[in-house]
Amino acid sequence: MNNFSDYISDVQRYDPHQTITPIRALNAGKPEQHFFTTEDNVELRLTRFQGGNKGPIILSHCIAVSSLMYAIDTIECNLLEYLVNHKYDVWLLDHRLSIELPVSALQSTMDDVATLDYPAAVARVCEITKARAVDVFAHGVGSSTLTMALLSGLQNVRKVVCSQVSTHLYSLDLNTNKAKLRLPAWLPYFGKKHLTAFTDSNAGWCTKLYDASLVFMPVPKHERCNSPVCHRISSIFGELYEHSQLNIATHNALPRMFGRANLRAMKQLTEMLLANQLINAKGENSYLPHVQKLALPMLFISGTNNDCVLPRSTLETYNLLRSVNGNDLYHRQEIPDYGHVDCVIGQNASLDVYPLIVDFLES
Fold first, then answer.
1. What is the pLDDT of residues 292-341, one digit of tens each?
2. Closest CA to 95 of 81, 109, 85
3. DSSP structural state of residue 137
4. Per residue in 51-63, pLDDT tens?
5. How far apart are CA 170 and CA 324, in angstroms?
6. Contact call for residues 90 and 49 (beta carbons, < 8 A)
7. Helix 205-213 vs helix 228-237: angle between axes, to the nearest 10 degrees?
8. CATH code of the region 1-363
């Protein structure tokens, strides 16, 4: 890649179906893959691990990643394994923002995930399991879009765990100021379609120059490292994890977990950050007027050190919902010494975070 206009982003340059040697076998039983089609004729994927008759529970990922974030083999026990070991019927959802699906190459919005992907996924799980309702754990953009789906009238959801964000979105001034540049809005004029965290060691000099420049980002000394992918992740989304919470194997696996995000979805996410709340792709406040539809048991989780999405975000949601729908349905936990996605992929998350999720589901 030698074109100067390519120095910011490019379509992923690795094959998402490439053979990767597992670090270890998952302790989750044999997976079942179920492909399903949305109302707008997009094929998506659910992967089932049937640990027992609890649930069923859907795990929904963030943007620029996939359901692999729940099944990563670099930690002793991932969230998938933890739930399976606690006898849950677990369904990993890869929605249209999943880097493992071809549809992630196309332009789409967070509204599409909310109003098209979630209804189809919930309906498919209920159809196969004969369950009347499902539980859902969702992280980041997966959590925002789940909230948008519920506010749009999504049915057959029993309990919800929202990791890091839901109705409101606040970040550090550094990230907000970057958002004011509205990079996803003007990059299409330069022929770009994606931002990507993936970087290729065989890329051209412009890409290598860009990656080298990211070393100078204002990142605390204790969060610095030598990974170009890690630097790109921080440049696009802000600091997504505390390095102290990631083991070496997980840090080395970041290129497997992070990839492209289409600019249309990123544009909507940017505008949400500037508005500090959910808005649709047209910039309209079409979701929050319906917060009474969130009258179901919900747990909000935030890492206390989350500089990507400040804990204030879930606190505002928590207070808003209690003021509208009463105090009994909602719970909130801040996880000390954790950031954003390390609440899911952290080396000790099975000790510090996952038990809180199961306690809520079984309360």
1. 999 999 999 999 999 999 999 999 999 999 999 999 999 999 999 999 99
2. 109
3. E
4. 999 999 999 999 9
5. 21
6. yes
7. 70
8. 3.40.50.1820
